[in-house]
Every structure is written in C-alpha cells, then in structure tokens.
Amino acid sequence: MGFNNMLNIERSYYVATANRTTDHPRLTDVIDADLVVVGAGCTGLSAALHAAQRGLKVVVLEGGKVGWGASGRNGGQMSPGLRKGALGLVKQYGEERGRLIYKTTFAARQLVLDIIEKHSIQCDLKLTGHVSGIVKKSDIAHYEAEADCLRRVMGMDHLSILSSSETRKLVNTHYEAGTFSTVAGHMHPLNYTLGLAKAAVDAGVTIFENSAAIALERKPRIRVSTASGAVVARHAILAGDALLRGLEPEVNNRIMPVGNYIIATNPLPNAHELIPSDAAISDSRFVVNYYRLSADGRLLFGGGEKYTPRPPRDIAAFVRPYVEQTFPQLRGCKIDYAWGGLVSITTSRLPHIGRRGDVLFAHGYSGLGVLLSTLGGKILAESLVKNTPEFETFAALRPQAFPGRTALRSPLYVLAMLWYAMRDRL
C-alpha cells in the first residue's frame, strides 16, 4: 500500500461532500497525443485545459482518481503569494526582481477566480480574507516590516497589522497580535479540482484514472507508460508533485514529501462564535496550525507537529490536542472526518518549475499550492514550445537539491522539525 493510500482520502470531508464523482477509464492501449500530462491535480488539469484551448490533443494520466492527491486534500486556504514573503524576496533578490517574482505569483489569485466564474464551479468560495495569528510578541516587528515592504516595494496595501484584541474579534482565540489580508479566502478544494477537470474535458482533454505512470522514455519520441498502456507524445508535463516517483531525477531530488493532517468536526451550532470573520486562519509557528469553517458550519483544522514521515495511526486523535488548545470550548467535540495528505517542500520554500527538453514540470509549492498550482499549470502549457517570461521568472528560482538526494531527505527532515519545534517553544 502506498503512503498516500494510508492517509484516508476516502474518509475526508471533501470526498463526502463532493459535487460529483469522476468516472474516467483506465488506459489499456497505446495512444498518440500532442501532450501527455502526468497527474490530475490542479497543476496537471490547468496545464491540460490551457493546452487544449490552444488546439493541442491532450491526454492526462492519473494514478488514482482526479483530485485525490494534494489538490483535493488540502486546507482550502486561498492565500496569494509564496512561502517566502515580500521581505524575504527583496532580501534575497533585491527590490526590482523581488517585485517581479511577487507580482508574477500574485496573478494566481485572479486566474483561479476567473476559472471559477467562467466555468461556474461550485466550490464554497469565500473571499473573507486571511488572519495570521502571531504567537510570539518578538515576531510582531517582522510582520510590521512585511506589511511595510508590501506597501512600499510591491505596491500592495492588502495586509494590516492587528492588536491582540483586534485579532480576537476575527478569530476567538488568543494571539499576541495578528495580520489580516483582504485578498485571501477559502474554498472546497476537491470541488474546485473536479470543476477544473470538467472544464478540461469540455475543452477536449482525455483523462485516464487508475493509470499510474511508471516509465518515461524520451527517444525517438516521448513515451509515458502505465502498467497496461502508454501515451506517445511530442511534449510531456510532470504534475504529480509529491507523488511523482522515479520518472525524473531533476524533480525527485528537489522536493521533500511531508505528511500533513486535517480533521473536520461535526456541524457546530456556535461555529460563527469561533471565527466571526469566517476568514481562513493560520498561525506564525514554523509547524503551522491552519483552520477555517466549512460551508455547513464545521471546523476544518490542520497541522500539529509530526517528526517522522509515517502517518499517525489515529489521525483524529493526533490533531485533537491542537484543536482543543486553540479552542478549549471544543474539548471532547465530535470529529466526523480525519485525513491526511502530502505537502512537497523545497530547500528554498519556493516552487520548482522547469524543463528538460520537451519534458516540463512544476511542483514544490511548499503549502501554498491552492492558488499556485493552477498558475503553474498555465505557465507550463504556455511554455511548451518557447519559454514565456513567467516561466523564466520561476525557472530562475530553481532550488538546490536536498543534501544526500532522496536517501537522506527523511532523516534530515526529522532533525529540522525537531529543531524548529524547539525554537517555537523557546
């Protein structure tokens, strides 16, 4: 049984409330295409949709079911930007290049909103903002500097600094201070992904489910094989993120798959009292807690510290202490759903987008893939023949490979998590 199958996607709130079930066949033949896409999450489906709209014959291979990777399991928080903030981008790349990276990234927000509107995707969209709860007083100065950098360098005025009491009016728990972003929100990520798949199919894309890619050959043409068939194509896009195993060393060596765990409570009669703003919430810990309300009044809560890559035996029991620490009034509450997923992180915490000849890839969104994945797919589709400026902007961010390559990723991750957990507590 693969790691991802141990994370209970079938027991997730999202699967239970999906608008529709997918029913795409398994690949059982050798077929030709202009483009073969590996992975039917938001990166792959966005790439397929945008390539098909440009007249290409596109085939998507999905090892499980549409959206059953990170795209349909995540917290649903729509926060524009990168894991490295505006201040970090300017510090590393300077003001001019930092501004270019930030504004290229920020385009993901409008792209997703346009797709939702154009294709009438029902995904519980809420543009109610995002609160980041600041856990330590010593961190407040950093967030003040971040808001100043956004205004002064990026020309963005969407982030405000809140006092502890102002933060509590938006989310009813204690933080030393907080930030509020007016351009963020949240949605049902699986329903968005399923809507994206339908849009791709309507544009002429063929999707095969239960058709895991097991081999990639480049000559004489690109050939991606499954256990029972193959696709021969001019171009390939690898969009399997943390679940893409062995097809391309350039991809595998630069991401670390990290398990993350989410619960959904039963519908709460006092849900609005927990988060009066109905915003998406996260905190300033390195191992982030993040949560929001569902459309039917449940608390969806993810996070907690886990120092080994194997999932906990009881996900609900693992997450519960973090829920009850945040909201003591929920002590003993009923948890209806509990599941996990894999987040792919890079050494730089910036996405890894690039190509090797006619094989392109995008991954490593480091926890901010809800918006970035759709943008990554569009950029790949537009760069099949010639790199676009957006592609070049992201490709130049190429992160270093993890020390020791794949063999040492997990041990190094465990050591890093122990260190940052200790730093959070101190």
UniProtKB/TrEMBL annotation:
Could you tell me which SUPFAM superfamilies the record lists for this protein? FAD/NAD(P)-binding domain
Any single GO molecular-function term of the entry would be:
oxidoreductase activity
Give the UniProt keywords, A-Z.
Oxidoreductase
Q: Which EC numbers characterise this protein's activity in its record?
A: 1.-.-.-
Listed InterPro entries: FAD-dep_OxRdtase, FAD/NAD-bd_sf, Rhodanese-like_dom
The protein's matches in Gene3D superfamilies, at most eight in alphabetical order, are given as: D-Amino Acid Oxidase, subunit A, domain 2, FAD/NAD(P)-binding domain
Which residue numbers delimit the Rhodanese domain?
32-77
What is the recorded name of this protein?
FAD-binding oxidoreductase
